[in-house]
Design goal:
Elements lengths: L10 H4 L16 H18 L6 H8 L3 H7 L3 H16 L8 H16 L4 H12 L7 H23 L9 H18 L6 H13 L11
Helix pairs in contact: 2-3, 2-5, 5-7, 6-8, 6-9, 6-10, 9-10
Length: 218
């Protein structure tokens, strides 16, 4: 009798859905295998997104054993977060143009470019939404927002010191105003994220909506 081929095992079905930093305890990591796995996961996320992330694909790409993957990560959410952080750390370069607005423009463009490369943006917003509903992957907020924002806060602090941003400005609100529309468009998929959009966001944020550029509330 003919036998059917066994279905591919998915990190989603093989491992719990919890995320965060819940990694397996065991022997010390091999840095080479660790990097190989994260690089493989990054490539797979860009090609297939989170739903298509399978352990068979990871071990084939990274050339490691399944046991190595399971020893270090207990869910595909946790390995996906580590892989995306690796991409952000390697591909987002902190600019120093001498202009606050140009530094912010550069980071916004880099952020949009990285997230629009394949299925990475879909994975990013999926983890963002699930982090609001699942305490076990709440670390996503800490690692992706709190730590990431520190880079932006430093640019804003320099801008305030140079007089390019008012000292009364709220750094958190500035970050929300500049990067919120990018994330919203990733969530909705209704319109493209391009240089024109980023330039319009910056123009609106820095010059206001009224012709006189005065506070609309006054």
């Amino acid at each position: 009798m003919p036998t059917s081929s066994a279905p591919k095992k998915s990190l989603e079905t093989k491992l719990p859905e919890g995320g965060g930093d819940q990694r397996r305890r065991g022997r010390p990591r091999s840095s080479r295998s660790h990097e190989a796995i994260l690089a493989a996961v990054g490539r797979l996320l860009r090609k297939h997104g989170l739903p298509g992330l399978t352990v068979d694909a990871v071990v084939a790409d990274a050339r490691v054993s399944k046991g190595t993957v399971y020893r270090w990560w207990v869910s595909k959410h946790s390995v996906a977060m580590d892989a995306i952080l690796r991409i952000f750390n390697s591909e987002l370069k902190v600019p120093d143009t001498g202009s606050t607005i140009e530094d912010l423009r550069s980071l916004m463009k880099q952020f949009a470019t990285v997230l629009q490369n394949g299925g990475l943006g879909y994975t990013y917003v999926t983890l963002l939404v699930e982090a609001q509903q699942n305490q076990r992957i709440e670390e996503f907020h800490q690692r992706f927002f709190v730590e990431r924002r520190e880079v932006l806060y430093e640019i804003i602090r320099k801008g305030i010191k140079k007089g390019e941003i008012t000292a009364q400005a709220d750094p958190d609100l500035i970050v929300d105003v500049l990067f919120g529309p990018i994330i919203f468009r990733l969530l909705t998929g209704l319109r493209t994220i391009d240089d024109r959009m980023i330039n319009d966001i910056l123009a609106t944020a820095f010059h206001g909506l009224t012709p006189s550029a005065r506070d609309p509330g006054k």
